[in-house]
Amino acid sequence: GEDVEQSLFLSVREGDSSVINCTYTDSSSTYLYWYKQEPGAGLQLLTYIFSNMDMKQDQRLTVLLNKKDKHLSLRIADTQTGDSAIYFCAEGLFGNEKLTFGTGTRLTIIP
Amino acid sequence: DVKVTQSSRYLVKRTGEKVFLECVQDMDHENMFWYRQDPGLGLRLIYFSYDVKMKEKGDIPEGYSVSREKKERFSLILESASTNQTSMYLCATIRGGTDPVEQFFGPGTRLTVL
Description:
The structure holds two protein chains of two kinds.
Chain A: E1 4-6, E2 9-13, E3 18-24, E4 31-37, E5 43-50, E6 55-58, E7 61-66, E8 71-76, E9 85-92, E10 99-101, E11 105-110
Parallel strand pairs in A: 2-11
Antiparallel strand pairs in A: 1-3, 3-8, 4-5, 4-9, 6-7, 7-8, 9-10, 9-11
Chain B: E1 4-6, E2 10-13, E3 19-25, E4 31-38, E5 42-51, E6 54-57, E7 64-70, E8 73-78, E9 87-94, E10 104-105, E11 109-113
Parallel strand pairs in B: 2-11
Antiparallel strand pairs in B: 1-3, 3-8, 4-5, 4-9, 5-6, 7-8, 9-10, 9-11
């Protein structure tokens, strides 16, 4: 993996949708991941997408992958205060346990 | 549930001190990782270990060493702490040979070097 870029901050009103974006550079990445870090805690896997998929939906979470542009996004519908966290995207290669993490996006919810 | 524990949540040390950060996991995972987390830089891999006594350098190993004498325990050592090693340190673990990769993280140790 090489550099994985994210915006550092995002503020969203409670109830609105949040969209967190990520760009990566390694076109051979097999899986792309979203991890969530709540205050005072380590990271936790939120969801992932295999590189041959365009979209994955899991309850309030939608992951979109544009392989041509090397762009990954995470949409959180109906954002709640409990969604306040830092979100990291990460890329990995098949059979390789190492991941390359992005810079992280701090999501703040406005009441 | 996988449990990954780190020996301290907060640590304050002086420049030049030798610092040990300990990580213990209870799930018999082969692979363990040490990262540091800095604002705007994300997570950067310091070292990882894929088995007892086996280690590999990550992206930023300078100033650090590691020890893995037992499968469940992975230690990060700062031989002579410096102020630029003030950071959040995160340990992670995964079972070998799995895809997709789910890394399980400890809660982190916030180290301040004065």
